[in-house]
Automatic annotation (TrEMBL):
Belongs to the KdsA family. This is 3-deoxy-8-phosphooctulonate synthase. The keyword Cytoplasm applies. Its main location: cytoplasm. It comes from Aequorivita vladivostokensis.
Amino acid sequence: MKLDLIPKIKHTTSNNFFLLAGPCAIEGEEMAMQIAEKIVKITDDLKIPYIFKGSFKKANRSRIDSFTGIGDEKALKILRKVSETFDVPTVTDIHEVSDATMAAEYVDVLQIPAFLVRQTDLVVAAAETGKVVNLKKGQFMSPESMKHAVTKVTDCNNEQVLITDRGTMFGYQDMIVDFRGIPTMKQYAPVVLDVTHSLQQPNQSAGVTGGRPEMISTIARAGIATGTDGIFIETHFDPANAKSDGANMLNLNLLEKLLADLVAIRKTINQL
């Protein structure tokens, strides 16, 4: 896959990693625009190719009373407005076959959630839209097995595919990143490291996923050092009050320093 084929993406000749970042879920227009504006400025200053991330709905909730979204079309229109306002590509996750064609009208990258990446009909539906397909590695899958998920996309005559590692289940309530998987999966497609989801602590008794955001910098730095092509970070200006995944999101005020550090590490790696 060639990064510069993604519509509106910038700084593709900077030799930097690329970034997928934004809130877990679209909670409203004002918050999405506020977050996008700040990230666009940071990534422009640091010459990082950037894709705005926001889920138009959250179907994978632990409890029935968890926040799932503000309405599909309403959230998708906000994603389109972010793209048009800041001239950046956007990515959102889909959960059902019917989501693929609907979301493809509004965004540039369709993301397959980790727990659905073996769902052939869903992966094929995303691939057949012609959009870039971002495949989250299942928490239960080996890096080697992602070759078959990638092949499902390319067999649909769509070469625009990414793999995102979001950690592997470790016991019942923790995740761990096996950095050996990055060079393995790079044989099949460009690899993104989902830093924030890799620090989730799922299956908590309260029905709300926990997390370890204090480890974000550690995991992100290690990802750049081991050769990941892209970094995925969910961020919010008020994680404690975010309506989804606040426990493992990065405070937006900490993003610039983190990205500057990662750019410096990448520069060093490029010189080796």
